[in-house]
From TrEMBL:
A Pfam family per the record: SQS_PSY
Enzymatic reactions: 2 (2E,6E,10E)-geranylgeranyl diphosphate = 15-cis-phytoene + 2 diphosphate
Gene Ontology molecular function terms on file: 15-cis-phytoene synthase activity
UniProt-listed Enzyme Commission number(s): 2.5.1.32
Record's protein name: 15-cis-phytoene synthase
Keywords from the named record: Carotenoid biosynthesis
Tree of life domain: Eukaryota
UniProt record, GO biological process: carotenoid biosynthetic process
Length: 409
């Protein structure tokens, strides 16, 4: 599994915030300003709106995705469960959003305390020896993270996420076990407490001391990666939705927490987080639709099993990799679903971010939907044919997104 928020070419301002907000590189000077805006934004949210338009609601899609229905029945909420292995497996995404919003106030207060807390290097020295002068530690840590960023050639990746991805899907991924993932989880927890295990965690400890990042989102991502070790099929879209939350939406939620929200925003934080989740699920679905073949060769099918069956398709059809009328019809419905998710999510997010960040989301939305266009132009052949948007087109889309963010059209 490659984390689905890595596009290759992304606006420079977006790269900067990812680097500064999530231990990829040296924090930007704007970081303090973003944090202040985020704090001001949260102060204006008390009390939170509780009407149906401001509170996150789980979304339901029918097979053809011709309509989007909002459901709030107990059965509907129960359908959106956190993946097995998390601390609260019965917590719905709706409840998770409400908890994230509530925790932001505490996190902002904690940031001021963390800034005054010195790093505890006991574990670092124990695992790696005391070979780096303390005065150079932070610089060396961020330099190491920068190297991962450059080598990955993925502008929306960050060091912690890339290293976790390699843990399961890298050259030694076949040796990954639950114990290995548990150790990673513990090292992340210790980094949040100012006790880094390695040089990369030094940068993470420094980052979380400057930005109000929710550790639960890191835990969600870890559990999503854990599921990749055993879960190769998804019975319905509810299950795939939850998987995409863990492996896509949680990253976008971290971006929102790192970058802050415009002080002029009139939307509730619930709505913004709802948008981030929806956008992340749609972005992940786009990534899965373009990589059907590569995923199948690893024994994974990121498609709803019940909808494959309803379309007259099976796992064998996916592994066989032949485009048929049934496959075209199935993929057309999935692509429409991805577009709806991307449009809904971006409409809730872009206008609420600062201009220098919002245009990055414009660019992501435009490029993601163009990839879906390419899948259609390639006659839905994503078994062996690579699906991508060329760099000249990406550059044009970046300029288009920037113009849109300025309201030029």
């Amino acid at each position: 599994m490659a984390f689905p928020i890595c596009m290759g070419v992304v606006p420079l301002s977006f790269q900067g915030y990812c680097l500064g907000g999530m231990n990829g590189c040296t924090p930007l000077s704007q970081g303090k300003r973003k944090l202040e805006l985020g704090e001001a934004q949260i102060k204006t949210r008390q009390p939170m709106k509780q009407n149906s338009e401001s509170v996150y609601q789980p979304r339901r899609f029918n097979l053809s995705c011709k309509s989007v229905q909002t459901t709030t029945t107990p059965a509907a909420v129960a359908g959106f469960r956190i993946l097995d292995g998390t601390e609260n497996p019965t917590t719905s995404i709706k409840e998770r959003v409400e908890k994230l919003v509530s925790n932001q106030r505490t996190l902002l207060a904690d940031v001021e305390l963390k800034k005054q807390r010195p790093l505890d290097l006991t574990l670092l020295d124990q695992f790696h020896g005391n070979y780096i002068p303390k005065s150079d530690l932070l610089k060396v840590a961020y330099d190491h993270c920068r190297e991962i960023f450059v080598k990955a050639e993925e502008s929306l990746s960050f060091a912690w996420g890339k290293r976790l991805d390699e843990l399961v899907d890298g050259i030694n991924g076949s040796h990954a076990t639950n114990d290995v993932v548990d150790r990673w989880k513990q090292s992340t927890f210790d980094a949040f407490q100012g006790r880094p295990w390695n040089i990369y965690d030094v940068a993470l400890s420094d980052t979380v001391s400057k930005f109000p990042l929710e550790i639960q989102l890191f835990k969600d991502i870890i559990e999503g990666v854990r599921s990749d070790m055993t879960k190769k099929r998804f019975q319905n879209f509810d299950e795939l939705y939850l998987y995409n939350y863990h492996n896509g939406s949680a990253f976008f939620l971290l971006l929102a927490q790192a970058m802050g929200i415009s002080a002029e925003s009139k939307a509730s934080l619930e709505n913004v987080y709802h948008g981030m989740i929806t956008f992340g699920v749609g972005f992940s679905l786009m990534d899965q639709l373009r990589d059907v073949g590569p995923d199948a060769r690893m024994g994974r099918i990121y498609l709803p099993q019940d909808e494959l069956l309803a379309a007259g398709l099976s796992d064998d059809d996916v592994f066989r990799g032949k485009v048929t009328d049934k496959w075209r019809k199935f993929m057309k419905g999935q692509i429409e679903r991805a577009r709806v998710l991307l449009d809904e999510g971006s409409s809730l997010v872009i206008q609420e971010m600062n201009d220098d960040v919002g245009w990055g989301f414009w660019a992501l939305a435009i490029i993601a939907k163009e990839i879906l266009d390419v899948i259609e132009a390639n006659d839905y052949e994503t078994f062996t044919r690579e699906t991508y948007v060329g760099k000249p087109k990406i550059l044009l889309n970046l300029l288009l997104a920037y113009a849109k963010s300025l309201g030029l059209f």
